[in-house]
Structure formats: structure tokens, C-alpha cells
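Practice problem: Transmembrane protein 19
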Amino acid sequence: MADVGKKQLLALQEFKARGGGSLADVITRACSKGRKKRSSAAHAEASRGCLHAPGHGAVKGSAVSRRQGGPGGAEVISLGISMILFSWDDSNKDYFKMMTNIIILSVLICISLSFWIVSMTASTYYGTLRPISPWRWLVSILIPLIIASRGFKKKSLDHSGAIGGLVVGFILTVANYSFFAAMFMFFITSSKLTKWKGEIKKQIDSEYKEGGQRTWVQVFCNGGVPAELALLYMIESGPGEIPIDFSKQYTASWMCLSLLGALACCAGDTWASEIGTVMSSEPRLITTWEKVPVGTNGGITLVGLISSLLGGTSVGVAYFISQLMFVNDLDISAPQWPIIVFGGMAGLLGSITDSYLGATMQYSGLDTSTGMVVNHQTKDAKHISGKPILDNNAVNLFSSVVIALLLPGAAWGFWPRG
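Answer key — C-alpha cells:
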């Protein structure tokens, strides 16, 4: 077996040094080298046999030659398998990846065309439904799939989170490209900030996960409200981009701002928690204004509030830019710049709402054995604030619901008319 391993290594080295060649040629060269070495050894052994036992050297040499002459079938097969694996790793990896991408794209195109046929059939049958173009179907499937797969590879999502993100992304993208732009900004910035200064966060947060590793529960608590609003938006006005104008399309505009508010709320809370916890400023509890340890639910800082404002603004900017890119009749509609201001206010107010719910309905305790803030009661935990009614995911969900329901109505009173 040792000889077989040496031959395999020799063949692999020769294959790599000479830039490849056919598998049969390399195996033949390796076996020929092994045969020459064994023939020399057999000849020397036969000569020694003739010296020590006259008349029997030829027989002994012949036996040695038969025993060590050429490689057997098992050796050739073993070497061939090694060569196949070697050439697969070095030569065919890129080809396999390319073919996989082509197959996936072909399947997605077929799915998109199938959806388009269904939408055309439904539009023809009912007469009031606007069909969705095959290009929109393809973009709605392909782009969320790429984002979800990259999020999984970078450990921003686990398996269930990637599937949940794919579903939410598909619904938002097929409904309105501006919805997708806002969601994309929230996901990218939140993922980057979650990984930012992770070593410090490990020492503060007892539930910190490397890279974030969001599950399907977290995905739907942050994206469930926007996904539902996107479905209602498609029922109301059909898929497509519209300017936000209360004087012309009140219900559809209200739903657009409601969805933007929910995403900006989640972005503002994420920015505040991910940036505020690693800064040196000491947080204060929002209900009593007492100083609390870093990581306490309901603790706020000036840095955190500014971060929440910027987080919501970033989502508003993404929505506004996509409006400029995809909406055609902006010149006869109300100004769209208030979208940016609305996003910033939704992020700030959403973070404040989240902090208040966290301070009152989410348990926070200081574990004396580790010095970390925990979200559940233990024998070593000293109570800081809140009651064990909601967890962090539920707090995020309720905060986004509150902002999505209340803020569009308030914005209607101040929104410019076209």
C-alpha cells in the first residue's frame, strides 16, 4: 500500500508540473516508472540469489519479477481515482460552478415565465387585474435569491432565516421596487453593523451570535409587517411603482408610507443598539432616567438616538432614490423629498418606542457570575428593569406595528399636495 501511495503522489506531482495531460497518459507514465524501479530491484535480487545459491538464482529472480513486476488492476484504479479527484479540484471546479449557475438561472427563467402565464391568464379571466411582466417576475426571484444566499454564506442568516428572507424579499420586490430598495438598505446596513466590533459585543451580550445569524423568527418579526403591507398594496393598486400623493391615491400612498415606516423603525432600532452599545457613553433607562449597565433593554444614549435617526434616514434615502429611478410621472405629482424626513422620524420614534417596550415588558437582569446583562431570570441574575412578558423579537414586532399604523396618518397632515 505504501508503494501505491508513492506512485499516486508521483503521478499527481507530474500532472501538476506538466500542466495536466490525459488521465491515461499520466497513469501510464507513473506505472512505467514503477515498473522500471521494480525490474531493477528484481534484477539485483536475482543476482544476489545466483551468488548465494547456484542453480536457483534464476528461479528466485523470476519469482521476484512476478511478485514486483508491474502494477496490478487495483493499483491502477486507485491511482485513477486519485487523479480524477485531483483534476476535479484544480481544473473542473470553475466549470462546475459556471454550469450550476446556468442551470439555476434557467430554472428561474422557467419559473418566471410560469408566473407570467398565470398572471396573464388571471388578467384575461377577471379583466381587472394588471398582468406582471416576465422581467419583473425574474428580478423578483433572482435578486432576493442572490441576497439570501450571500447572507447565508456570510453568516448573517441561518438556513431558516435565508428561506424567510427569500420569501419576504420576493413579495416586496414583485410589489414595488422601492419596497425592495428600502428592505435592501435595512438588511445590508444592519448586517454590517451587527458584525462591527463583535469582540466587544461578545463581552456585553450573553446572546451574541457570530455574524448575527438571524433566524426565520427574527426575519418575520422585522419583515413580516412590510410583507403583509406589500400584499395589501398589490391588492389595492397592483404591482408597480407610484408616487406618494395623498390627494390622488390616498390608500396606496398610506400603505407605502406604512411599509417605509416599519422598515425605518427596524433600521433605527438596529442602528441604535449596534452602535450605542459599543460606545463609551453610559445608558439611562428611558422610564426612570437612571443609569443602567450597557445592554439593558430600554437603555438609551445620545449616540443611540442619533444613530436611530440616521438609520431611518438611510432607508428613506434608498426609497427616495428608487422613486426617482422607477416612477415616471413625478413631474405632475406631489414632491417626494419628504420621504427622507419621514424615514428619519420613523427610525427615531421607532427606536424610542422599542426602548419603552423593552424597559417595561422585557426582563433585564445583571448576571453576577458573568457580569453580563441577561434577558431571562436566573438564580444569579439581579433584576434591573422590566417584566418577562415579551422577548426581543416580539418587542421589535410590536414597535414596527405601532409605527406602521400611527405615523402615516400623522404624515398625511403635513404632506405637500400636488
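Discussion: Residues 6 and 34 are 9 Å apart (CA to CA). Students who identified this feature from the C-alpha cells alone can consider the problem solved.
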